[in-house]
Amino acid sequence: xxxxxxxxxxxxxxxxxERHVLRVSCAARPGIVAAVSTALAAKGANLVESSQFWxxxxxRFFLRVGFIAPQGAEIAEALAPARDxxxxxxxxxxxxxxxxxxxxxxxxxxxxxxxxxxxxIGWLNAExxxxxxxxxxxxxxxxxxxxxxxxxxxxRETKPEIxxxxxxxxxxxxxxxxxxxxxxxxxxxxxARRLSGRxxxxxxxxxxxxxxxxxxxxxHARGVKHIGATAHYxxxxxxxxxxxxxxxxxxxxxxxxxxxxxxxxxxxxxxLARAVKLHLEGRVFxxxxxxxxx
Length: 294
Description:
Elements: E1 2-6, E2 12-27, H1 32-42, E3 46-55, E4 60-70, H2 75-86, E5 89-94, E6 100-105, H3 110-120, E7 127-133, H4 139-145, E8 149-151, H5 159-173, E9 177-180, H6 189-194, E10 199-203, H7 215-221, E11 226-233, E12 243-250, H8 257-280, E13 284-287, E14 290-293
Parallel strand pairs: 6-7, 6-9, 7-8, 9-10
Antiparallel strand pairs: 1-2, 2-4, 2-5, 3-4, 10-11, 11-12, 13-14
């Protein structure tokens, strides 16, 4: 990418630039935005996007900045004084970098297929480096996409071994995110802690009362008028992690269980893909039990 920057002699000439995303969180204090923008300007950075939020309840401040800067500019070094002065949690990522995903799935493959499609058309800037399943059903999908497939049958006895394999796989592949695309196995508390902030699950219900097996049948039995889905970070508390994205669809008394299942599959696929996109673009900040989306 090229842009124009004044050189030492004052002449404006094309310069190779890089796009970055900067994420900042810290206790709320005056001067945070000024300190960050001043440090970026000192390295010739040009801001192209900026969002911020002050959470009054926790008194935490969140900032996300997209910017371009001359190639090779030492941005992290320039930000160090501001980071230390405000005790910031700071994350700087090249926007061109393509994050790597491990997708876990059981028998229902709609959410997996939707993710693969959105990656193929470029809406999601990512690559799936592995598909893991406790069933063999998705092996054909993985073969067509040229993605390594790992069939790890899950039982109570094999669960510790499978989770150890997953951690090893994520480390070896340098995976940035684990996506549970209707992977119908509960992760242990230990694994949830190890993947904290790096694993997203799609919960096939909008209302917490419809947990467990056949949620759409439960919803039908209760005569609900909206069904939905929730994408959240994985934690040790089943389906209680910080929520990233949700959506609902209106239904009626004429909608049977099969209709609800079909509508639900569509909602689940869309909600999970949007949550993954928000995470990969660095727009999600965990703030206690909830999230801030910038």
